[in-house]
């Protein structure tokens, strides 16, 4: 369940423990880090909850990609490293896909294919947790 108060400029924060929190933006975000989308609560007025959650998920995906490639640049990733990072990210479901249920559909389709090839697929939550933990280690 999501409880949103009427505070201004709320942001969604994800933690390595797989917990999420909606709160005011940090007062002292390091200026070099990409900023998360502010005001996720403003758009929800007049929107259906499902549509609003999808919008928040899209903004979350955008921020995660921004942070991932920021640290890639910061650590001097070359073309091959950036390509590997991009491929690793694309192997995971997006927050949007998880929120809308598209990730479950893709997992079902992949497991049908992988059952024939003998490989096992990881659950979305464990894979997403790995990605969030990896990103949070550098933040």
Low-confidence stretches: 117-124, 129-139
| Radius of gyration computed on alpha carbons | 17 Å
Structural class: mainly alpha
Question: How large a portion of the residues is in β-strands, by DSSP E?
Answer: 5-15%
Mind describing the biggest β-sheet?
A: 2 strands, antiparallel
Approximate shape: flat
Count of helical segments?
A: 5
How many E strands? 2
Helix percent reads 40-55%
Mean pLDDT: 74
Reading side by side through the largest sheet, how are the strands ordered? 1-2
Please report the distance between the alpha carbons of the first and last residues.
27 Å
The ordered H/E elements are EEHHHHH
List the helices and strands and how they pair.
Layout: E1 11-14, E2 20-23, H1 49-74, H2 79-90, H3 95-100, H4 102-117, H5 124-138
Describe this structure in words.
With 139 residues, the chain is mainly alpha-helical. The protein has a domain at 48-138. The protein has helices at 49-74, 79-90, 95-100, 102-117, 124-138, and strands at 11-14, 20-23. The two termini are 27 Å apart. It is found in: Nucleus.
């Amino acid at each position: 369940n999501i409880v949103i108060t009427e505070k201004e400029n709320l942001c969604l924060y994800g933690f390595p423990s797989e917990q999420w929190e909606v709160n005011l933006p940090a007062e002292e975000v390091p200026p070099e880090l990409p900023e998360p989308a502010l005001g996720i609560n403003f758009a929800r007025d007049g929107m259906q909850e499902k549509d609003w959650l999808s919008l928040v998920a899209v903004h979350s995906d955008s921020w995660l990609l921004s942070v991932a490639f920021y640290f890639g640049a910061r650590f001097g990733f070359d073309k091959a490293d950036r390509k590997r990072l991009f491929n690793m990210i694309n192997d995971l479901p997006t927050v949007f896909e998880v929120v809308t249920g598209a990730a479950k559909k893709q997992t079902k389709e992949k497991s049908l294919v992988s059952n024939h090839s003998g490989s096992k697929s990881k659950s979305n939550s464990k894979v997403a947790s790995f990605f969030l933990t990896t990103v949070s280690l550098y933040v």
